[in-house]
From TrEMBL:
Its EC number is 2.7.13.3. Residues 159-193 form a coiled coil. Keywords: ATP-binding, Coiled coil, Kinase, Membrane, Nucleotide-binding, Phosphoprotein, Transferase, Transmembrane, Transmembrane helix, Two-component regulatory system. PANTHER family: NITRATE/NITRITE SENSOR PROTEIN NARX-RELATED (PTHR24421), NITRATE_NITRITE SENSOR PROTEIN NARQ (PTHR24421:SF10). This is histidine kinase. Residues 202-392 form the Histidine kinase domain. It comes from Actinomadura gamaensis. The keyword Hydrolase does not apply. The chain crosses the membrane at residues 14-36, 42-63, 70-91, 111-128, 140-159. SMART domains: HATPase_c. GO terms for molecular function: kinase activity.
């Protein structure tokens, strides 16, 4: 409640400036009897002139921050007319100092310097009038007046510099906030792209296995019930695996902290399980490992696993009924090379033009500085070869 009231009060510049003028009005009210009592002899003032002079000096202060230069010009002009009339200073003449501070604090340095010159000139004229041009008597009051004016001007400069510094801090904080939001959006988009690739690999592979097994079960249900039952069991197992992986991926979207509770990310240790699953689906697959296995990051292992999974899915879908595949995984000093070769239809395989598997493979490899070559073999079949650097410094 207090904070909102303070914000409301700060937004009303006119009311705030009027409140700052009230102490001067109060002091002028207290000194009014003495001024008016000796007005004719000492101040050369009548009541109407006194009231008009006070209003001319203080009323513009209500808009001093909205129009600082215009306000100071009006106040300086009223004070100059007061000097021309031979009237001595009153408490309301402090409005000149208030105007000087406002111009210095809220305008450019040049305008502040000009306002300083006007205020110093006013001090010179006032001391000259009071001490009738006596330089010896003028020296002390003029130095005092000038010191006060310079102090007000320096205070205005300090406030202008401080306000500019705070404004720069606010702009920097706002810019950093925008950059942080942009980084969050980029990270979110990258995560969504990763999840989209994961979903494509999971759904494409498992659905392909399910379709192949369902076709086999439909073909063998009358002639070989045992084989049909085995195909249905494979469909159930594959479906449960797909659901588990999809729950894990969707869990990332709901709550990143709970994402790992569903299932671990697959890696190179799960290639044997993948090969067995594909064999059960009807595609003979052999796996050969060469070289000395090196420690790979989870992201690199996942990328290799998904590339092999996508290549086997394509072989299962497009290779034909008598196709077989071979996986060669070679651990090198600087990179891991994986090749998936099948002897299926190759270039003769039908293509519906809706697949994104090859694009996803290349994107996964490019994240770690690797590359993927994929295409039909000259003697028939299809080959996918991926090379993934094992260290950041070995990226191509």
């Amino acid at each position: 409640m207090v904070g909102r009231l303070w914000e409301w009060w700060r937004a009303r510049r006119t009311l705030v400036d009027a409140a700052f003028v009230l102490p001067v009005v109060f002091m002028e009210f207290l000194s009014a009897p003495a001024v008016l009592h000796d007005g004719i002899h000492s101040y050369h003032l009548t009541v109407p002139t006194y009231l008009l002079l006070t209003a001319g000096l203080l009323l513009p202060m209500v808009w001093r921050r909205r129009w600082p230069r215009l306000t100071f010009a009006v106040v300086a002009l009223v004070a100059f007319v007061q000097w021309l009339a031979g009237t001595q200073m009153i408490i309301s003449d402090t409005a000149v100092l208030m105007g000087l501070y406002t111009v210095t604090a809220y305008s450019t340095f040049r305008w502040g310097l000009a306002a300083l010159g006007v205020a110093v000139l006013g001090a010179v004229l006032e001391t000259y009038q009071q001490w009738e041009g006596s330089l010896k008597q003028m020296r002390g009051p003029l130095v005092a007046f000038t010191a006060v004016i310079l102090g007000i001007w320096v205070l205005g400069l300090h406030m202008r510099t401080r306000r500019a510094y705070l404004r720069q801090l606010e702009e920097r904080a706002e810019r950093l906030e925008h950059e942080r939001d942009a980084e969050i959006r980029m990270a979110r988009n990258a995560e969504r792209a990763r999840i989209a690739r994961e979903m494509h690999d999971v759904v494409a592979h498992n659905v392909s296995v399910i379709v192949v097994q369902a076709d086999g079960a439909a073909f063998a249900i009358d002639t070989d019930p045992g084989r049909a039952r085995q195909a249905l069991e494979t469909i159930a197992t594959t479906g449960r695996t797909a659901l588990a992986e999809m729950r894990r991926l969707l869990g990332v979207l709901r709550d990143e902290s709970a994402a790992e509770a569903y299932a671990p990310q697959p890696g190179l240790d799960q290639l044997d399980d993948l090969v067995e699953q594909v064999r059960t689906a009807g595609l003979p697959v052999t796996l050969e490992r060469t070289g000395t296995a090196s420690a790979l990051s989870q992201g690199r292992a996942l990328a290799i696993y998904r590339i092999v999974q996508e290549a086997l899915t394509n072989a299962l879908k497009h290779g034909g009924p008598r196709a077989s595949a071979k996986i060669t995984l070679h651990y090198g000093d600087d990179e891991v090379t994986v090749a998936v070769v099948d002897d299926g239809r190759g270039a003769a395989a039908p293509n519906d033009g809706h697949g994104h598997g090859l694009v996803g493979m290349r994107e996964r490899a490019s994240v770690y500085g690797g590359e993927v070559d994929a295409g039909p073999r000259a003697g028939g079949g299809f080959a996918v070869t991926a090379r993934i650097p094992v260290r950041e410094e070995a990226r191509t």
